[in-house]
Task: inverse folding
């Protein structure tokens, strides 16, 4: 492998890893704070991708505006969904949460099939991000992928800032480490739940929108992302944003380079990584001992 | 009550054995399918209902059992005496590896890890040429053993029925044994069991491997019935559906797993029948999803739980296995 290829693969790894981070961070926070295991989280990623498919003809050049509109729509959707459905799951055990969110996936998939059909769709990158730039003499790298990575970096930094430097973030971290204590201190936990859930949905949908021009938009795309995100959460440790970031990048590198070196068995790489982490630190890289 | 709780399932088995041959080919095929699903559901009941381990990756063992059956039978077919141990052994071996790793975690981690390892097995069959890739593979000749030929639909029926009765009996025995009592203790309070000097990890791993082997048995029977396997068998929908079956029936009862398998199959048939639900039948996933949500929300104790409301004594779990 020459240096150019290596560089391209590194960029791909980082970009894929950061995209996973956007989805996984919501998943890990929702579990860490509300104690809900949400199988339908992958559906929010799918929702984002289909929103990009539906909205991009309307916005054309204004890709950033489209992302902003999509995020707002997704957040509103998440807020309503928490109010109407998820708020009833908090008191139930994990088994019931698994089944009810599984039921929700079936509902989302069928609604998707009714509304958009079962075809695979492509989404065009905005005109100002088309084409590639040269990397060395032989290699080139698409502008859109670079944009996606940059957008994810900005979002990751923003998320880090909100979680670690603001009052809201303080409540979120406190909620993730001891839910009952936060409630006992008089913080409006229901409002906090609703905000975190809406933010989780918005992040997953945003990841879906950003990913849409790179991967096609297809039925069942939520499930594959969901399971990889579970791997990320298990590796990183539940409730830890930093853990999710480290694990996402690790998974991004293992998956991308796995495809280069072991084409046929590439699907297995990340699970082997998870197995190693489970042997070494069953509670995850950044998780607390359970 | 104890005697009654075993005599009803036995009665059902006898009725099936007597009237089975009179069923039309379509009905008999459906009954065989439901019995195979019942074995699959029973194997998961050992984990979820008896030990308190919520696994969301059980379809992997089912699929591995089915694949082992097809891969093990060559162009001239194979012997049941060889293929059955092969199917159960392969499933048990994977269960040993997955269990050894995933049982290091608990609760929601365990759910995610079992799902992830099942997905890994799915990818092995889906992405490599080992099992024919995403199309799956056909079996040339169904397994035989002496006069038993799985090609014959009556043989198929009785072999599957016998397997179901044996599985049910084995689990009923496990429940009454010291081993079963230890599993119940782990479900209720693992910490206390550990403090009492039980090697909790070993017990859980043993339960996981037995459950995997029994799911492999169900997989063997499915492959012998269908004569074809594909990676969809290992897909996580199957893990979700089988989990749903045991909840639907009623967790903590062996009967629950069987009732759940029957009820789930009927529900799915019903929701996709045009004559009954009209145009909604094309969107059965939507109605099924809503039904699942409503069911879990309103009846967390399953169908057996309904019986319990009407007559509390009828659904009391057997001694030492209170749920």
Result:
């Amino acid at each position: 492998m020459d240096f150019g290829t290596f560089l391209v693969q590194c960029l791909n790894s980082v970009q894929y890893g950061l995209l996973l981070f956007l989805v996984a961070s919501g998943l890990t926070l929702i579990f860490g704070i509300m104690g809900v295991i949400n199988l339908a989280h992958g559906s929010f990623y799918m929702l984002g991708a289909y929103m990009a498919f539906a909205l991009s003809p309307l916005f054309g050049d204004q890709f950033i505006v489209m992302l902003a509109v999509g995020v707002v729509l997704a957040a509103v959707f998440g807020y309503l969904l928490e109010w109407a459905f998820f708020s009833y799951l908090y008191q139930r055990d994990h088994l019931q949460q698994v089944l009810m969110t599984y039921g929700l996936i079936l509902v989302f998939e069928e609604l998707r099939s009714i509304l958009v059909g079962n075809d695979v769709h492509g989404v065009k990158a905005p005109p100002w991000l088309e084409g590639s730039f040269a990397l060395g003499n032989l290699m080139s790298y698409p502008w859109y992928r670079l944009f996606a990575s940059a957008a994810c970096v900005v979002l990751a930094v923003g998320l880090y800032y909100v979680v670690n430097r603001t009052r809201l973030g303080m409540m979120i971290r406190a909620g993730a480490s001891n839910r009952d204590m936060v409630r006992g201190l008089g913080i409006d936990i229901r409002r906090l739940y609703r905000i975190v859930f809406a933010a989780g949905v918005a992040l997953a949908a945003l990841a879906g929108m950003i990913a849409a021009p790179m991967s096609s938009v297809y039925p069942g795309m939520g499930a594959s992302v969901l399971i990889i995100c579970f791997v990320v959460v298990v590796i990183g440790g539940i409730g830890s944003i930093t853990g999710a970031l480290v694990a996402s990048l690790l998974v991004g590198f293992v998956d991308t380079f796995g495809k280069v070196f072991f084409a046929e068995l590439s699907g297995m790489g990340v699970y082997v990584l998870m197995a190693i982490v489970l042997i070494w630190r069953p509670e995850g890289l950044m998780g607390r001992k359970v | 009550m104890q005697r009654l709780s075993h005599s009803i399932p036995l009665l059902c088995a006898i009725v099936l054995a007597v009237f089975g041959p009179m069923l039309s080919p379509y009905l008999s095929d459906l009954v065989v399918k439901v019995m195979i699903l019942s074995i699959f559901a029973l194997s998961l009941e050992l984990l979820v209902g008896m030990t308190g381990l919520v696994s969301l990756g059980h379809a992997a063992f089912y699929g591995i059992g089915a694949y082992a059956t097809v891969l093990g039978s060559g162009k001239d077919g194979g012997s049941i005496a060889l293929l059955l141990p092969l199917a159960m052994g392969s499933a048990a071996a994977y269960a040993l590896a997955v269990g050894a790793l995933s049982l290091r975690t608990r609760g929601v981690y365990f759910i995610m890890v079992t799902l992830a390892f099942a997905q890994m097995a799915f990818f092995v069959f889906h992405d490599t040429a080992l099992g024919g890739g995403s199309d799956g593979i056909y079996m040339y000749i169904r397994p035989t053993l002496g006069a038993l030929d799985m090609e014959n639909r009556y043989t198929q029926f009785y072999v599957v029925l016998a397997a179901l009765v044996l599985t049910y009996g084995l689990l009923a025995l496990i429940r009454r044994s010291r081993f079963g009592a230890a599993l119940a203790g782990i479900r209720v309070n693992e910490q206390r069991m550990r403090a009492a000097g039980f090697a909790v990890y070993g017990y859980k791993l043993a339960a996981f491997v037995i459950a995997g082997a029994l799911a492999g048995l169900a997989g063997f029977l499915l492959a012998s019935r269908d004569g074809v396997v594909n990676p969809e068998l290992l897909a996580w929908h199957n893990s979700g559906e089988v989990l749903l079956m045991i909840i639907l029936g009623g967790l903590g009862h062996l009967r629950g797993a069987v009732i759940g398998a029957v009820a789930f199959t009927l529900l799915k048939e019903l929701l996709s029948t045009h004559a009954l639900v009209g145009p909604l039948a094309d969107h059965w996933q939507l109605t099924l999803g809503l039904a699942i949500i409503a069911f879990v929300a309103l009846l967390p104790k399953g169908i057996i739980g309904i019986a319990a409301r009407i007559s509390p004594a009828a659904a009391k779990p057997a001694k030492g296995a209170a749920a």
Observations:
- Residues 2-234 of chain B form one domain.
- Chain B touches chain A at residues 48, 54, 56, 101-102, 104-109, 111-113, 115-117, 119-120, 123-124, 126-129, 236, 240, 243-244, 247, 251, 283, 285-286, 288-293, 296-297, 300 (CB under 8 Å).
- The mean pLDDT of chain B is 88.
- Chain B has one domain: 2-234.
